């Protein structure tokens, strides 16, 4: 299988420098880059079949966490934004379950795709995780499952929607709600967000849409799935340095196993 069998390269010419520059400008301006219809219809149907077949192997868990994904801070009361808990619940299939000939694997490994992501994000290099679980994940949200408000630890995320629920499962975000590099956590703004006093943006996407999102300073969540149709989303994760593995504690938390 070739990259052109997976990606609509006529609509999204990954190898053209001018196209990559335009995409980088959009990502820098908006904090998001949305490429609808990125995946060819036949390849998308293959991904749906693979994701459905793998779902029985998914590790499902429910966790509580703060928006900042940090341990509790005893210097603040429990209802302070740094300590206030939200809920995230999902299933996850790990990299070692994704077949070598899966369109996801071909896309992830394709030099053209990796070069495009590097050009758009400004990263000098992109490398897979050193552990066997973390590079490609498929997330499942069944009825009632959600991702609570949070900031990412990484500078950007790449996602591909495989299947959309019939209701709910919306991606909501507030751009630049904090400045992590400057140490400005914006507790008042996060408090307003958690209390529903802040307007949010909704990122609309259909199956086959590729999204690059800068979530380090932009709070985001996925609302509860309000249907019996499972939300399925692939996450393609790279590192700026080779040899990086997700910690054993994180692997046990997110995947329920180390390898």
UniProtKB/TrEMBL annotation:
It comes from the Bacteria. Residues 131-242 form the Fe2OG dioxygenase domain. Pfam families: HalD. InterPro entries: BesD/HalB-like, Oxoglu/Fe-dep_dioxygenase_dom. It comes from Thalassococcus arenae. The lineage of its organism: Bacteria, Pseudomonadati, Pseudomonadota, Alphaproteobacteria, Rhodobacterales. The keyword Metal-binding applies. PROSITE patterns: FE2OG_OXY. Belongs to the iron/ascorbate-dependent oxidoreductase family. Keywords: Iron, Metal-binding, Oxidoreductase. This is 2OG-Fe(II) oxygenase.
């Amino acid at each position: 299988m070739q990259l052109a069998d997976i990606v609509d390269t006529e609509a999204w010419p990954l190898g053209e420098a001018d196209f990559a520059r335009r995409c980088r400008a959009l990502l820098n301006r908006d904090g998001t880059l949305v490429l609808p219809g990125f995946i060819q219809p036949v390849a998308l149907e293959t991904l749906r079949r693979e994701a459905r077949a793998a779902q029985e192997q998914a590790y499902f868990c429910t966790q509580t966490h703060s928006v900042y994904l940090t341990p509790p801070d005893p210097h603040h009361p429990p209802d302070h934004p740094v300590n206030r808990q939200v809920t995230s619940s999902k299933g996850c299939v790990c990299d070692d379950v994704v077949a070598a000939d899966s369109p996801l694997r071909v896309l992830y490994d394709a030099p053209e795709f990796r070069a495009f992501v590097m050009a758009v994000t400004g990263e000098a290099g992109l490398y897979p995780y050193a552990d066997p679980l973390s590079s490609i994940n498929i997330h499942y949200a069944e009825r009632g499952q959600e991702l609570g408000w949070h900031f990412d630890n990484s500078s950007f995320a790449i996602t591909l929607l495989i299947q959309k629920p019939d209701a709910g499962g919306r991606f909501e975000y507030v751009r630049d709600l904090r400045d992590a590099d400057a140490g400005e956590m914006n507790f008042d703004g996060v408090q307003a967000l958690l209390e529903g006093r802040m307007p949010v943006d909704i990122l609309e996407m259909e199956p086959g849409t590729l999204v690059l999102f800068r979530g380090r300073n932009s709070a985001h969540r996925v609302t509860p799935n309000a249907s019996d149709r499972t939300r399925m989303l692939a996450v393609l994760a790279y590192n700026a340095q080779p040899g990086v593995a997700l910690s054993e504690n994180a692997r046990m938390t997110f995947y329920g196993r180390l390898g």
